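In this section we walk through a basic example: taking a raw amino acid sequence and producing a predicted 3D structure, encoded as discrete structure tokens. The instruction is simple. Fold the sequence below.
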Amino acid sequence: MTLQFKPVASGARLADQVADTLAAEIRSGRIGVGARLPTEANLASQFEVSRTVVREAVSRLKSLGLVDSRQGSGVYAREPEAQPLRFEMSDLASRDAVVQMAELRRPLESEVAALAAQRRTPKDLERIRDCIAALEQAVERGESGAKQDLAFHLAIAAAAHNTFLMGTLEYLHGLLHNAIRVTRANEARRDDFSRAVAKEHARIADAIVAGDARAARAAAKTHMDNAITRILRADPAFWQQEGTQLAKPLTQMKGSELQ
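The resulting token sequence is shown next.
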């Protein structure tokens, strides 16, 4: 597949715009792991920027761990990785750990959704729609959809075009993935939970499409509020079996790294 990029807009820092666009393509898988990026000259021509801007953008991608340079060969996409997360914590019950992760996500997801509604591009909207479709397909196949759920939220984060918010979510990638695995497993046990999640995702996406930042922020907050409620309403048997097993990475992090 030949990559085609639109010229960046004036205003925001050009190198950041180029880096954000390329990073979104790598994270979405459109630029596959191991794929070579277009040449510096090609990217400069497509984005209508100088080669210096492209070099700055590639340098940022390297700092995020998204690309590698191979001397005499070019720049290649890497598998997105979370940075190691180091901290000490006391042991938590499985349910409490998942609730606390949802509480951490609530303000982040709310602000990300609001910014996405203000800054999304047509390509961002296409990516969000693709993620919703992929999630629906995963559920139809009988899968939990945890990976696709996380991809949906990261697609919204990419649409916010805020380097630090995106970096924060990338840093928390491992924690988010493990927490979502638990919530999706719980939601899959009840049709009413599954239907509610699908509707909440649709409301967030619709508000972003409409460019309504207030509605997007409210929809994202409601989604996380309801996620906490669903966790608290989980069948006790869930925590005695599957839930506790899935939550182990969140409850056994003393002095360790979680990726």
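Looking at the output, two observations stand out. Strands lie at 67-70, 74-77, 85-87, 256-258. The CA atoms of residues 126 and 236 lie 39 Å apart. In the next section we compare this with other chains.
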